[in-house]
């Protein structure tokens, strides 16, 4: 399903951003593998609301498509996987062991699992044994407060993970500490399954990070917000021109309207704030789009502003 010999590019799960419309767009412009936003196993089991189930859906062009779940209760993880099993178009299930957000950590989920490797292994085994999907993967950090990356990675491998993605910071490092690419390289040399490097990767340093870490793939997260063309830039080695940027932005807008209906234009404002960052007249543009409700008017303004 995933050809790691070609050093594929993954879109990282990004809460509030990597929804179906964005994933469908990056797939058109260089992204190889998409991952859903993080989905709470507890929410899947106890709420099973339309909103939660909607997060499992994929665009027709998302192939391969991985769903990421978070949780720490083994029984609920199993039930959540059984729900995911009913969706035929999902290629793998990823366990989040990297989220540093306090409300997730308080539930002993996300990066908190890095403090309990036996529980981590039990959850991975449960996913592997219960899932009818082809792939089981894990997204980790270097550790919780201290670096323990090799032990964590080996625990994932021993439990049956098919590959891991590793963010080169500890939980304590949040998103501001310097990324330790040498530590990622240590993980890669310590296990046999594919390793994906993650953390502060952009179009300028992507090749260097691949060489430094010797990893099998790269996962792009925050660098894609407002710049989903980053996948195209990494693959082509060239900056995209304004015409392609406009094409991507309009494709994203159209996908939002198709997926969310009329309210898609309101949701899209946060993306337009990112897309226009640093451009001349960006402030006036943002003020204007914040007042527009009509999707046709907004699309015309986007087209003219990014001309």
UniProtKB/TrEMBL annotation:
Necessary cofactors: FMN
Residues binding FMN, per UniProt: 68, 139, 167, 221-222
Molecular-function GO term, any one: tRNA dihydrouridine synthase activity
EC number(s) from the headed UniProt entry: 1.3.1.-
Classification via SUPFAM superfamilies: FMN-linked oxidoreductases (SSF51395)
Source organism, top-level taxon: Bacteria
Chain ranges of the DUS-like FMN-binding domain: 11-297
First-tier enzyme category under EC: oxidoreductase
Keyword tRNA-binding set for record: yes
Catalytic reaction annotation: a 5,6-dihydrouridine in tRNA + NADP(+) = a uridine in tRNA + NADPH + H(+); a 5,6-dihydrouridine in tRNA + NAD(+) = a uridine in tRNA + NADH + H(+)
Protein family according to the UniProt entry: Belongs to the dus family.
General function of this protein: Catalyzes the synthesis of 5,6-dihydrouridine (D), a modified base found in the D-loop of most tRNAs, via the reduction of the C5-C6 double bond in target uridines.
Protein name: tRNA-dihydrouridine synthase
Organism: Campylobacter californiensis
């Amino acid at each position: 399903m995933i050809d790691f010999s070609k050093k594929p590019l993954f879109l990282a799960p990004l809460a509030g951003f990597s929804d179906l419309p964005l994933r469908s767009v990056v797939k058109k412009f260089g992204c190889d593998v998409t991952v859903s936003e993080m989905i709470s196993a507890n929410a899947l089991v106890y709420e099973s609301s339309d909103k939660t189930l909607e997060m499992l859906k994929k665009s027709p062009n998302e192939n391969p498509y991985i769903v990421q779940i978070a949780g720490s209760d083994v029984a609920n993880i199993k039930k959540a996987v059984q729900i995911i099993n009913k969706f035929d178009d999902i290629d793998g299930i990823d366990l989040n062991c990297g989220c540093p957000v306090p409300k997730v950590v308080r539930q002993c989920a996300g990066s908190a699992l890095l403090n309990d490797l036996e529980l981590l292994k039990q959850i991975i085994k449960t996913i592997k044994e219960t899932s009818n999907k082809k792939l089981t993967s894990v997204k980790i950090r270097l550790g919780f407060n201290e670096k323990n990356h090799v032990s964590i990675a080996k625990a994932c491998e021993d439990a049956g993970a098919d590959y891991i993605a590793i963010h080169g910071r500890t939980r304590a490092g949040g998103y501001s500490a310097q990324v330790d690419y040498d530590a990622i390289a240590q993980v890669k040399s310590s296990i046999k399954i594919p390793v994906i490097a993650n953390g502060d990767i952009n179009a300028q340093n992507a090749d260097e990070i691949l060489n430094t870490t010797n990893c099998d793939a790269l996962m792009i997260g925050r660098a894609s917000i407002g710049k989903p063309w980053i996948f195209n830039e990494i693959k082509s080695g060239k900056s995209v021109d304004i015409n392609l940027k406009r094409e991507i932005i309009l494709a994203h807008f159209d996908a939002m309207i198709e997926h969310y209906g009329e309210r898609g234009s309101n949701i899209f404002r946060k993306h337009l704030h990112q897309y226009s960052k640093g451009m001349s007249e960006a402030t006036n543009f943002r003020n204007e789009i914040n007042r527009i409700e009509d999707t046709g008017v907004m699309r015309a303004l986007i087209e003219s502003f990014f001309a």
